[in-house]
Structure formats: C-alpha cells, structure tokens
Design goal:
Helix content is 34%, strand content 29%. By secondary structure, the protein is of the alpha+beta class. The chain folds into two domains: 240 residues, FAD/NAD(P)-binding domain (3-Layer(bba) Sandwich), CATH 3.50.50; 92 residues, 2-Layer Sandwich (D-Amino Acid Oxidase, Chain A, domain 2), CATH 3.30.9. It has an eight-stranded mixed β-sheet with strand order 6-5-14-15-16-13-17-20, sandwiched between helices. The chain has a six-stranded mixed β-sheet with strand order 8-2-1-12-19-18. Strands 3-7-4 form a three-stranded antiparallel β-sheet. It is globular and about 65 Å long. The chain starts with 5 loop residues before the first strand and ends with a helix.
Length: 377
C-alpha cells in the first residue's frame, strides 16, 4: 500500500519525469500535464554530477543515459591568452560513489527523451498543451484544473513545473527567482578530439569561459559575463557577440569559434537563484525541483538536486500508508538542508567573482559540497 493512489504532476522536466517513473513503477496512477505543445528542452547540453547518475540508476534509466552521454573524470583549468596553457588538472569527487563516473555531459534533448520514454513505459500518462491553471483542495484530495477545465481529483499534485512554476503561485508561495548579476552565453558545437573532459578558463574578458563534452562529436560551450539586457539581440547578433567575446581564449576555443562562424546558434540567459523555505507543500500539493529551488550552474548541481527531490519524495510516498505530516516532515528534513547548501554555495562562487575576491577559497567550497553530495540524499 502506498500513501497515494492517483497523482497529478505538472511539468515534464527531470524532476517531473523522475517522479512519474518511480510512482508509476509502484502501481500509482500518474498523469503528467505539460503546458508546452511537445517535449521541450531549453539550452544545448547539460552537466550531470555523479549523484545525478546514481538517481538515474534507481530509476532504471542509467544504461540508456550512459549510452547517450559522455562520461568523464576530472576538470582541466586553462589560462586565457595565446596557447591556452593548462594551469591545473583537478580530480573530481565521485559524488555518486565508485560505481559511476564522476560526471557526464549529454544533450538536453536526449536526456528528456530517455526519461519520457521510461515514464511512459512505466505506465504514466503524459498530456501536452495542458497547463495547470487551478486547484481546489478538499479532505478527499485535490481537484486539478487544466486549461481551466477540471480533469479529476487526485491524492497529490506535484508541482515540478520549473522556475516560473504556476503551481507555486497557485498555492500562495511568494518566493521567486532573483537575478544573481551574471549572464551566460551557450552554444552547441562539435567536440575537438583533445577535449576529454570539462575545461574552464578564469580571467580574460569573461568571468568564466568553458565547455563540456556531451558526446563523441559534440559539446556545449559557454561564456559567463556580467548580466546585461540582451532581449533585443537577434539570432545572428547573438552568434557574433559570442564569437567576439571569446577571442581572449585560445586552444579548443578556436574550434568553437569556427562552428559559430559556420552558423551554430548562441543563446543567452541570466543566472537566477531562489530557495523556498519549508514547507514546500500546502496540504496535498507540493513543489519540487526548480519550482522549489534554483541556482547558478557554478557547481553543476541543479539537475542532480531536482532528481534527488523526486527520488526522496517518491520513496517516502511508496513506503507510507497515508499521506500525513510525518511524510512531509521527513521529506523536508532530507531535502531542504541539502538543496539549501547547494544554492548557497553556487551563489557564493558567483559572488566572489563579481566582487573580484582573489582570496576566496573556491576550490575548498566546491570540494566540500561535493563531499556532502557523495552521501546519498
């Protein structure tokens, strides 16, 4: 017996689909409602730390994800300027444990497709063009409105609908993502043979320049700058700006620029951060993933934390007989301190760069968070 028999999930990102997989595998009737017309992905590639890979294994999706991604160990630091001299080769903490690579890069579209296929195979129903627009809670459950029409009464509604969560607003949580002061250019490009792992350049015109392999023949490259209003920039101008801003960086960046000059598109977003304080639920409605917390990708833990939210929540729901306060207390005790530590550290790393603090112990902070993440959620 599980604490819930029928669950609605808003969103179709990693947290939503992970929760759908685990609940459907346990025999729960799961309906996923996605506002977009199709399975969408924002951005080019994604970096996944070992603790995210450990969750994929629990979902039963690890073999497919490993085959579609590019696993690697360690991190290379390079200097800006001619030759892109290697400054250091750093080991990674294997935050997923010894059975998994330290990290992996993969195209976001491939990750979304794999998790979607596993959710459907487990028995979850997914509807697109289906925006959660309202809810009414009763003693028996929560009635969910989609596109302003009632779609049924559920034991639980999970709001996994991203940083601009509609469910978060519907249950009266006022916390919203706030800009951190940094913006990022991203492009999906080909991977040179001499890029076997993530590489970062500190200094030069950007706060950070880097790239992460996502496959044998692909990687995503990025430049982090002081946040600017780039809303009026055309697609062609975006590519030109990324080319110009990357000229301080040599080595594999020459290949990145060649792809951009050949037409690879660039996109721009601001870094934001937020953390909803406990409780993340209001009665039989709960938010997880980016709806509950978000952070800059300075330690690449965003997806991992969303996945852990889903895994812990579903573990507790499947183990309990009733959806009572004990379930929520256990959920918040396991998730809020961990997600909060990641948000705080991610924001701090960026702030040190904004402040030009050369004495900050960035390496120590990153290592400390990685050690925490090595302990299962």
């Amino acid at each position: 017996m599980t604490a819930v028999q029928r669950v609605a999930i808003a969103g179709s990102g990693v947290a939503a689909l992970a929760a759908a997989i685990q609940l459907a595998k346990a025999g729960v009737q799961v309906e996923v409602f996605e506002a977009k017309p199709e399975l969408g992905t924002v951005g080019s590639g994604i970096s996944l730390q070992g603790n995210a890979l450990r969750v994929f294994d629990a979902l039963g999706a690890w073999d497919d994800i490993r085959a579609a991604g590019f696993p690697f160990e360690g991190l290379t630091l390079r200097a800006p300027g001619p030759g892109a001299a290697v400054v250091a080769e750093l080991p990674d903490v294997k935050s997923g444990g010894p059975d998994y690579p330290a990290a992996m890069g993969m195209p976001r579209a491939d990750l979304a497709r794999i998790l979607f296929d596993h959710a459907v195979a487990a028995g979850a129903r997914v509807r697109f063009d289906a925006r959660v627009t309202g809810l009414r809670q009763t003693e028996q459950g929560v009635e969910v409105l989609v596109n302003d029409e009632p779609v049924g009464v559920f034991d639980l509604l999970v709001g996994a609908d991203g940083v601009n969560s509609a469910v978060r607003e519907l249950i009266g949580i006022e916390t919203r993502p706030q800009p951190t002061g940094m913006g990022i250019w991203r492009a999906f490009v080909s991977r040179p043979a001499d890029v076997p792992r993530s590489e970062l350049y500190y200094g030069g015109r950007m706060y950070i320049a880097g790239y992460t392999p996502t496959g044998d023949n692909s990687m995503y490259a990025f430049l982090v700058e002081k946040a600017q209003d780039r809303s009026g920039v055309s697609e062609g101008e975006a590519t030109r700006i990324m080319i110009d801003e990357s000229r301080a960086y040599d080595g594999p960046w020459n290949s990145v620029r060649a792809d951009l000059e050949a037409g690879a598109p660039a996109n721009y977003t601001w870094f934001t951060q937020h953390l909803v304080e406990a409780p993340w639920n209001r009665g039989r409605v709960v938010i997880i993933g980016d709806a509950a917390h978000s952070c800059p990708p300075t330690i690449a833990q965003g997806a991992a934390q969303a996945l852990e939210d889903a895994l812990v929540l579903t573990e507790l729901l499947v183990a309990a007989d009733t959806l009572d306060q004990g379930v929520w207390d256990a959920f918040h005790a396991r998730r809020l301190p961990r997600a909060g530590a990641v948000v705080s550290a991610s924001v701090q790393l960026g702030q040190w760069q904004l402040d030009g603090d050369r004495d900050a112990d960035a390496g120590g902070l990153i290592f400390g968070i990685a050690k925490k993440m090595a302990e299962p959620a």
